[in-house]
């Protein structure tokens, strides 16, 4: 199949979405934080990440460059230690990877906390598409691999941006897979970023699991279907809502942006305002699953404002993140100025 006739199996059926008029889980308290991180083992590689993150932050802090932590992709919940089965969250990391590029273009250094093998800045243009990467290539008469002429103009632009980020140490890639890895790493990076205060920005675009299986109930090996009579019953616990701990404790001076994805337009604003009241951060960017690539709503404590692509922009293939990121940066600048007036 080719062109518009391709079959896409990754798009969920929004007509059968569950009712989201349900109360949110309560914000995490200090005791929830203590219990969670005490009862679960940190990733064995965390010390290496700590060194890399600290070096990255110190490097850009000396250059007085602002740093944004962009989280991207979905988390998994393993059902076995030797994992064969797991529960996943729907997210390819498109919003996060695209946003990271626009932050880089606007002078920020980016710590990109992403689901391993999800979309990455710059390479996203040529991965996770309906075209095979080899479709961009051709063989020259002398047997060398070359980029097809029709793609060269676009590809050289992307390549130059990527090289600029690499050569100037502007992008640090930090992976996660499980929800435990994500939360441990988020706390670590947040505490490292706290040293630069209001110059740090948190752009939390990852799709984080709402439920997890406590370590004490995770079997070591693959669950055998014969032992359970052909049924699998899993008793999950709610993941503590650590956004409150990020705001209050881990990075109290930084600006924090969260996302609220819904399928029902009638409750989107209400849910976004509820998140602001619950967690006391600065901005929620609301979006609907059906239209998230074309419009979002900025919800603050005092206002709500839609950001939309025009029909011409949609037809031209403009990323809505090219509109989102400059607006976020304006708000971050105002937040920095306000914190300076307060002596923070």
Automatic annotation (TrEMBL):
<comment type="similarity">
    <text>Belongs to the PPC synthetase family.</text>
</comment>
<dbReference type="GO" id="GO:0015937">
    <property type="term" value="P:coenzyme A biosynthetic process"/>
</dbReference>
<feature type="domain" description="DNA/pantothenate metabolism flavoprotein C-terminal">
    <location>
        <begin position="65"/>
        <end position="116"/>
    </location>
</feature>
<feature type="region of interest" description="Disordered">
    <location>
        <begin position="1"/>
        <end position="24"/>
    </location>
</feature>
<dbReference type="Pfam" id="PF04127">
    <property type="entry name" value="DFP"/>
</dbReference>
<dbReference type="InterPro" id="IPR007085">
    <property type="entry name" value="DNA/pantothenate-metab_flavo_C"/>
</dbReference>
<dbReference type="GO" id="GO:1990181">
    <property type="term" value="P:acetyl-CoA biosynthetic process from pantothenate"/>
</dbReference>
<dbReference type="GO" id="GO:0005634">
    <property type="term" value="C:nucleus"/>
</dbReference>
<protein>
    <recommendedName>
        <fullName>DNA/pantothenate metabolism flavoprotein C-terminal domain-containing protein</fullName>
    </recommendedName>
</protein>
<feature type="domain" description="DNA/pantothenate metabolism flavoprotein C-terminal">
    <location>
        <begin position="199"/>
        <end position="314"/>
    </location>
</feature>
<dbReference type="GO" id="GO:0005737">
    <property type="term" value="C:cytoplasm"/>
</dbReference>
<dbReference type="InterPro" id="IPR035929">
    <property type="entry name" value="CoaB-like_sf"/>
</dbReference>
<dbReference type="GO" id="GO:0004632">
    <property type="term" value="F:phosphopantothenate--cysteine ligase activity"/>
</dbReference>
